[in-house]
Design a protein that fits this description.
The chain is 37% helix and 17% strand. It contains ten helices and nine strands. It comes from Mesorhizobium marinum.
Length: 252
């Protein structure tokens, strides 16, 4: 019965989970995704806001799931990043010591992305910023095939839309990189209507995470429960497969 929702956060990963259906959720922060997996039962259903399954070559709009969900979330579609080829994601794996080396690595990854896409397309700054976390999950799922049945990609804005009766959120969660209180409150109110307690959502997030990270992970927990009960929607349905046999789909 254990369900876990996961979002990336500044120091690693934030997980919101419950072990039984009547449990009050708990929020925890982990430095690595491997540590997170070890903290929960082997049969836990996990939904994570992170791309899973990487293409060898991309077409217009990025991977298939991204192209499918963008039209569904209206003005929130900029939150769905186009993820390039596996070669581009793995083009730069060394740590960056300065801002200059970070931007240089971004340019090199963009060049690889352009060579493995049609029409040729580089990498957005936002997508490049999560490449390390994408690789972290990807390595684990390639090395441990049993995870493919219980660790599922999701996306908060797609999930909020479905939980809201098919209507996208009216206000942005962030404006120019800063949390928008009106947008955060709109999402909290929806999560309360869907079963979360307001006292849980209004508490201070664990050290290393922010308030919007907590809200997104709480949303992902509801998706994990929908997956466990066989009620989640998959984009596409059925999921595609990447070159390693990893399912490629956004679940919500």
């Amino acid at each position: 019965m254990c369900v876990v929702g996961v979002d990336g956060c500044p120091v690693g990963w934030i997980a919101v989970g419950r072990r039984r259906i009547d449990d009050f959720p708990s929020a925890r922060v982990f430095a690595t995704f491997a540590e997170l997996l070890e903290a929960y039962p082997d049969d836990a259903t996990i939904a994570v806001d992170m791309p899973i399954g990487l293409p060898d070559f991309t077409r217009q709009g990025g991977r298939g799931p991204e192209a499918l969900v963008r039209p569904l979330i209206g003005q929130r579609q900029s939150s769905v990043f186009s993820i390039p080829s596996r070669a581009a994601v793995y083009a730069e794996v060394d740590p960056f010591s300065t801002v200059e080396t970070w931007y240089a690595a971004h340019r090199r990854a963009s060049e690889v992305a352009r060579r493995t896409s049609d029409p040729p397309r580089g990498v957005s700054i936002q997508a490049f910023a999560i490449f390390a976390k994408i690789r972290e999950v990807d390595v684990l799922i390639r090395e441990r095939p049993e995870l493919r049945d219980r660790v599922h990609e999701s996306h908060p804005e797609v999930a909020f839309m479905l939980l809201n009766g098919g209507q996208a959120m009216q206000t942005p969660k962030k404006i120019k990189g800063s949390v928008n209180p009106a947008g955060l409150n709109e999402r909290k109110a929806l999560l309360v209507r869907c079963g979360h307690a307001s006292e849980f959502l209004d508490r201070a997030p664990p050290s290393g995470a922010t308030g919007d990270d907590l809200v997104d992970a709480a949303c992902m927990m509801l998706v994990a429960d929908r997956i466990r009960r066989g009620e989640a929607v998959s984009f596409p349905d059925p999921p595609g497969l990447d070159g390693f046999g990893i399912p490629v789909a956004i679940h919500a």
